[in-house]
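Field log, afternoon session.

UNIT: design team B
ACTIVITY: writing a sequence onto a fixed backbone
BACKBONE:
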């Protein structure tokens, strides 16, 4: 049996836990919720306590507290720390579900940036974790239409979560069958939190509020 860990937050990370726990060859061994769980989304810690009581829950939010080599599979879902080589190198399969298209929207707040740039499409991507920011080979992706003239960040975020949940359902059970596809570095753009002031009216949930993701 493979042992799996999930690191992250919210309904999407909870969904990843449910998918992994249902696999016949996998045990959900450890869950590490983000240190600060948002009050606008499902609390991952509560979901695990109620639905996966046999899983170890690490409340520190630190990936460092997951012993290297303990789990065969590590899944990051909206996790708020950069995972270091100590865990990457010791894990057979370590992946991240990114709420944006890669490589064009690496880094922070991809939904906001896609709307800021007037994109007709947005998406979600499951990729292998490497030391760079969202640089690893792609395992699966989904794209869907957005309408920047009328969509708010809140609308596209919710749509992204629905599509990302389907992506996790499709890919997590067949990770061993997928050949990762390298990203095209010529198309790569990385957005950093320090650049968020450039988002203008797209910095928040809606163009009239101040709630951030």
């Amino acid at each position: 049996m493979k042992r799996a860990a999930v690191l992250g937050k919210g309904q999407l990370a909870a969904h990843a836990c449910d998918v992994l726990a249902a696999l016949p060859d996998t045990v959900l061994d450890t869950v590490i919720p983000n240190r600060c769980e948002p009050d606008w989304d499902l609390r991952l810690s509560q979901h695990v306590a109620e639905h996966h009581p046999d899983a170890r829950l690490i409340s520190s939010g630190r990936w460092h507290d997951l012993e290297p080599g303990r789990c065969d599979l590590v899944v990051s879902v909206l996790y708020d720390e950069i995972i270091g080589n100590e865990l990457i190198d010791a894990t057979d399969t370590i992946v991240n579900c990114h709420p944006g298209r890669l490589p064009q929207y690496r880094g922070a707040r991809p939904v906001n940036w896609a709307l800021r740039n007037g994109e007709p499409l947005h998406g979600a991507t499951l990729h292998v974790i490497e030391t760079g920011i969202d640089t690893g080979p792609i395992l699966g992706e989904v794209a869907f239409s957005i309408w920047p003239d009328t969509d708010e960040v809140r609308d596209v975020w919710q749509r992204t979560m629905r599509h990302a949940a389907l992506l996790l359902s499709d890919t997590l059970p067949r990770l061993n069958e997928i050949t990762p596809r390298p990203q095209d570095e010529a198309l790569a753009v990385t957005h950093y939190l320090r650049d968020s002031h450039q988002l203008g009216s797209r910095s928040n949930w809606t163009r009239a509020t101040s709630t951030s993701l």
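LOG NOTE: The longest helix spans residues 153-171.
NEXT ACTIVITY: expression trials, pending approval
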